[in-house]
């Protein structure tokens, strides 16, 4: 999970739909386009990019509460896999659209490949806050699966992460390989910059690889947008 800035003000249609007693249309007007742009076409939970099963997710489950149903700040973009796992099961999560909540400074994600391919989730807090605990549980569930069906989906998700991380690691290796020309090095640097931008898939994992190495951090931290 990484920080996303939610554009303001809210699409006007939300207040109009809320005022209609029987309407539950919170996907009105420009809502979908705005969410797609704000969340960089990514699921805010698993960071999959260009998702084919797009869901508009209520960060705080509305349970029929029209204030929460039509609250722009409560509408997030998620993939179906994550939305199905979250449903009403994980309340009180770290809000990744609140910069002050500092999601990237609190939760660390890494992919373990041996002995089993599994996503690890660590925290930087000595005393874990309730919202951190819930967010860790959700991320574990999303990346490693819950039911047998979800385990298959999560395994596909981890394969996508692995492929992306292998490409990123190859770029890092090539950047430090002195045999390449200056032109090639610049091109590789451009690729690294794209990998570390918030619009890339699985950015949290790649930024963690950079944070774990003092040289990488010195050379590439400026690419964290
Ligand atoms: Zn997802």
Core attributes:
225 residues; mainly alpha; 2 domains; two-stranded antiparallel sheet; 46% helix; binds zinc ion
Query: How many structural domains does the protein architecture include?
Result: 2
Shape: globular
Provide the helix percentage: 40-55%
Mean pLDDT: 94
Task: Identify the strand order in the major beta sheet.
Answer: 1-2
Report the structural category: mainly alpha
Question: Radius of gyration, Cα only, in angstroms?
Answer: 19 Å
SSE succession:
HHEHEHHEEHHHHH
Largest sheet: 2 strands, antiparallel
Q: What percent of residues are in strands?
A: 5-15%
Oligomer: single chain
Task: Write a structural description.
With 225 residues, the chain is mainly alpha-helical. The protein has 2 domains: 13-100; 104-223, no CATH class. The chain has helices at 13-19, 31-38, 66-69, 80-86, 103-106, 130-144, 148-175, 182-196, 203-211, 214-220, and strands at residues 54-58, 75-79, 107-112, 118-123. A hairpin with a 5-residue loop joins strand 3 (107-112) and strand 4 (118-123). The radius of gyration is 19 Å and the shape is globular. The chain starts with 12 loop residues before the first helix and ends in a 5-residue tail after the last helix. The mean pLDDT is 94. The protein binds zinc ion. Residues 43, 45-46, 48, 78-79, 81-82 line the site of zinc ion.
């Amino acid at each position: 999970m990484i920080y996303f800035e939610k554009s303001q003000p809210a699409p006007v249609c939300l207040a109009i739909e809320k005022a209609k007693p029987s309407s539950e249309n919170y996907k009105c007007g420009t809502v979908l386009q705005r969410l797609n742009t704000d969340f960089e076409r990514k699921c805010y939970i698993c960071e999959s990019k260009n998702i084919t099963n797009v869901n508009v997710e209520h960060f705080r489950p509305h349970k029929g509460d029209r204030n929460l149903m039509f609250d722009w700040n409560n509408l997030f973009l998620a993939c179906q896999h994550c939305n199905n796992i979250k449903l009403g099961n994980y309340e009180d999560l770290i809000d990744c659209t609140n910069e002050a909540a500092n999601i990237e400074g609190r939760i660390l994600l890494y992919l373990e490949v041996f002995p089993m391919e599994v996503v690890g989730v660590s925290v930087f807090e000595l005393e874990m806050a309730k919202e951190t605990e819930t967010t860790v549980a959700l991320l574990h569930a999303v990346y490693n699966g819950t039911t047998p069906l979800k385990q298959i989906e999560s395994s596909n998700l981890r394969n996508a992460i692995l492929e992306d991380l292998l490409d990123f690691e190859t770029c890092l290796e090539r950047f430090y390989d002195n045999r390449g020309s200056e032109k090639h090095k610049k091109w590789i640097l451009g690729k690294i910059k794209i990998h570390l931008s918030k619009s890339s898939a699985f950015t949290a994992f790649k930024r963690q690889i950079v944070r774990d190495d003092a040289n990488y951090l010195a050379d590439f931290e400026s690419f964290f947008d």
